[in-house]
Predict the structure.
Amino acid sequence: MGLKIGGEVEKVDGKLLSYTDFVEKYLVKNQPVILTGLMDHWRACKDWVLDNGDPNFRFLSTYFGNSRVQVADCGMREFTDQKRMEMSVSEFIDQWTQLSAARKDSGSDGNSLLYLKDWHFVKEYPDYVAYSTPKFFCDDWLNLYLDKYTMHNDPDTCQNRNEIICSDYRFVYMGAKGTWTPLHADVFRSYSWSANVCGRKQWYFLPPSQRHLVFDRHMKSSVYNIFEEGCKSNFTGFEEAIWWECTQEKNEIIFVPSGWYHQVHNLEDTVSINHNWFNGHNISWVWDLLLREYHEAREYIEDIKDISDNFEGLCQRNLAANAGMNFYDFFVFMVRFSFANLVLLCNLTNTKKLSWSSSEVVPLVIFNLKSTQCIALEMESTGQWKNSGVTIDLRETMEDQTFMEFCNLMARTYGAIYEQSEKKSDTDKAVLEDMELSFFDFSGSRICTPEDLVTFIDCALKLS
Ligand SMILES: O=C(O)CCC(=O)C(=O)O
């Protein structure tokens, strides 16, 4: 018996959809959708694709051939993912074209299929503007933050592995017909969007409410390939699962909501661009996952608790190694992010110096502050903050050039969502000086714990 298919992913013309409608129908409800008509002017759709719709291998190899990339062997499982290797883009393309030629000659599919994944293209080629992120996906706290800061600074973990791996969550994927991605929910339980520059993809989705059906009894291991024979016997709920299926065509963008498990198959030679991202609508998913992974990291080393000098530090270190960030990284991120929202709010509500329309951005900024505050309250209840060593001095932060750049980037991004990009939106220093006098007097200027962050946001909201 095949999969039970129950749900249908809507297809909507992105040009006719307002930002507010997208938020209400898909972000808030956490529902998938395919958007059309948003890639018309993308450089990637011209440079990377031949007239017959195939990938332009010669162009990709000539201009980007030297990049080192991660390539998955779709025929080889390694733990919960496919086995990965590193090679140059031109080596990858050579293997792809040889394989396609061999397939044409023999008529067989071959058994080794290579899939280029997670290529940090934007970070590597910032001046080659391959595409512009559609406004629906611009309220992206993750990539906005990573454009100015790093998430985790421990030299033992991600920095050591590779600077670029942690640098952003904007990727290019390229794979021949038949390449695929095993069943998974996205990193940090973020949203993702994925755009087909050429080719087609088949998506199989499982809503979060049915997640337990693809896990074993202990909720430890999950299904790798939904078409594998063993699924029914190893995962007893599997047959009850009701899947959503859809085909994403060339020049279409799919929105993948938080926590939806999905498996993806390339039906033709396909090049796609995808981002992972989170914002005020799904930040609670990120925190819930981090908390769950923290408990797992703790449980794993419980037996050395009594002989360890700094057991909590070790748990946080392991959490960062597994999840890409730990509680403190997430906390620092939330403090900087809230503070930048406050700066933006002050600029927007200072009517004397108002330089661009604030009517739509102010509610978004207030929503951001409130959703961050909710998470800070939850963080506080974990009680891990006594000796965390985290201190963020807001006066110092305000003097920091990187923070000012972060505030400006945020202002420009939120301006662009509401199509205010032509007008000046940079942070006004004079407004900040006014703010400093009035604000720090009653909020204090140091943030060390989630409790401090809650108080800080309370004060910030009073200004609105
Ligand atoms: O395109 C693929 O193979 C996988 C993409 C994916 O899982 C995602 O965008 O979340």
